[in-house]
Design brief:
This protein is mainly α. The chain has one domain: Alpha Horseshoe (Serine Threonine Protein Phosphatase 5, Tetratricopeptide repeat), CATH 1.25.40. Helices cover 71% and strands 6% of the residues. It is built from five helices and two strands; from the N terminus they run ββααααα. The protein has a two-stranded antiparallel sheet with strand order 1-2.
Length: 137
């Protein structure tokens, strides 16, 4: 019987160990290896679940930042919007573009405004698409 023993879990490399008889020691090694493989598989599932939570937390960060932005508390809004924007939230990216363009709570930077608007526009954010057209004229 051949048992595929994972030499480097998480990588494609593995060794094939030839087992001619299943004595208690070989069985223990087999079960331990199986347990390790399942543990890493479970870790991958947890990582995938955490990735989904990150999408929700990006929305939560955006909502906190947007609330402060709407109150014109731009300096307080910036860290929330920036984190959500870095996580790929297009509305947060658009708002950062506005903040940099107008110098609201941050130092005015046409370059950073354009970069954030481009990221949002690439995701179909209409407001950023319109702003980029205006910025070019």
């Amino acid at each position: 019987m051949k048992i595929h023993w994972l030499n480097q879990i998480g990588f494609i490399n593995y060794e094939v160990i030839e087992v001619t008889e299943m004595n208690p020691f070989n069985f223990f090694i087999f079960v331990t290896g199986l347990f390790m493989a399942l543990s890493f598989f479970q870790t991958d599932i947890l990582y995938a679940e955490n990735s989904a939570e990150n999408i929700e937390s990006a929305e939560q960060l955006y909502q906190k930042g947007k609330s402060l932005y709407d109150q014109k508390k731009f300096k307080q809004a910036f860290p929330f919007l920036e984190k959500a924007a870095r996580m790929g939230h297009s509305d947060a990216q658009m708002h950062l573009g506005k903040m940099y363009y107008n110098g609201w709570g941050v130092k005015h930077s046409h370059k950073l405004a354009e970069e954030w608007h481009k990221k949002a526009a690439a995701q179909g954010n209409i407001e950023s698409i319109k702003k980029l057209k205006k910025m070019k004229h």
